[in-house]
């Protein structure tokens, strides 16, 4: 019996993926690396420190002599936070999905790979904090998604068995984490990736959260 719904953040709650793409392109351009939108898909859903490390290793060595992956990560996070505060928008159906889940007496959780500071920025800007019974960032965990730990931590905080949780994800990496945690997984891939055959691993696939109905919350 379903007891909780756990939301990913980037690409599920807020349309921040284009912001991450822009931040990566702008920051790494300083170090001689051209990260196109296509290339940025390689690290979609990763924890921020992993993204910074991955692209740092592919920069012009002469241009990164006096910097570090940690400093680059700080630049990325600062840029995305600025963009969220200035132009961030909730994705269609998000509030209605939370209200629907709450109306079924389900607990609500948040499991994100993004840093705590960014998670708190989103919750504050959109006044969402009071709607979540538990939130967790993978920032300080040994591993981020696709490792399931962030999902397992949220389930534990909610005092719900992982098998009684519905995880809502947009990325392959996030879906993999949710399934590894033995959760039911609903995916809402961005339009460009709707036909990716790897999403067959998900239990449910929707175009967006406006399509979420009571039937999706009555899983046995």
Overview of the structural elements:
The protein is built from 8 helices and 6 strands, in the order E-H-H-H-H-H-E-H-E-H-E-H-E-E. It has about 220 residues and is of the alpha/beta class. The chain folds into 2 domains: about 5-15 and about 90-215, HAD superfamily/HAD-like (Rossmann fold, 3-Layer(aba) Sandwich), CATH 3.40.50.1000; about 15-85, DNA polymerase, domain 1 (Orthogonal Bundle). It has a 6-stranded parallel β-sheet. Helix 8 links the parallel strand 4 (about 165-170) and strand 5. Helix 3 (about 50-55) crosses helix 4 (about 70-85) and helix 4 (about 70-85) packs parallel to helix 6 (about 115-125). The longest helix has 19 residues, at about 70-85. The model has no long low-confidence stretch (mean pLDDT about 95).
Put the structure in a nutshell.
The chain is α/β, with parallel strands linked by helices.
Quickly count the helices.
8
For the largest beta-sheet, the strand count, sense and barrel status come to: 6 strands, parallel
What percent of residues adopt helix (DSSP H or I)? Answer: 25-40%
Shape: globular
Q: Which fold does the CATH topology of the largest domain refer to?
A: Rossmann fold
SSE arrangement:
Blueprint: E1 4-7, H1 17-29, H2 37-40, H3 48-56, H4 69-87, H5 94-103, E2 107-112, H6 116-125, E3 134-137, H7 149-158, E4 165-169, H8 172-180, E5 184-187, E6 204-205
């Amino acid at each position: 019996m379903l007891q909780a719904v756990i939301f990913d953040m980037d690409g599920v709650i807020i349309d921040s993926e284009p912001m991450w793409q822009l931040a990566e392109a702008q920051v790494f351009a300083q170090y001689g690396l051209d990260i196109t939108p296509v290339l940025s898909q390689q690290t979609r859903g990763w924890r921020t420190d992993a993204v910074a490390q991955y692209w740092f290793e592919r920069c012009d060595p002469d241009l990164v002599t006096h910097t570090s992956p940690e400093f680059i990560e700080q630049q990325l996070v600062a840029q995305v936070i600025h963009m969220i505060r200035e132009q961030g928008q909730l994705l269609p159906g998000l509030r209605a999905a939370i209200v629907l889940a709450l109306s079924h007496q389900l607990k609500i959780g948040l499991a994100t790979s993004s840093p705590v500071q960014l998670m708190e920025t989103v919750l504050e800007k959109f006044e969402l904090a009071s709607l979540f019974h538990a939130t967790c960032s993978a920032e300080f965990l040994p591993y981020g998604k696709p490792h399931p730990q962030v999902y397992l931590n949220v389930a534990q905080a909610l005092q719900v068995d992982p098998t009684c949780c519905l995880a809502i994800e947009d990325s392959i990496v996030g879906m993999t984490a949710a399934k590894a945690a033995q959760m039911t997984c609903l995916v809402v891939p961005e339009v460009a990736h709707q036909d990716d055959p790897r999403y067959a691993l998900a239990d449910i696939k929707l175009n967006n959260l406006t399509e979420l109905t009571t039937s999706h919350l009555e899983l046995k």
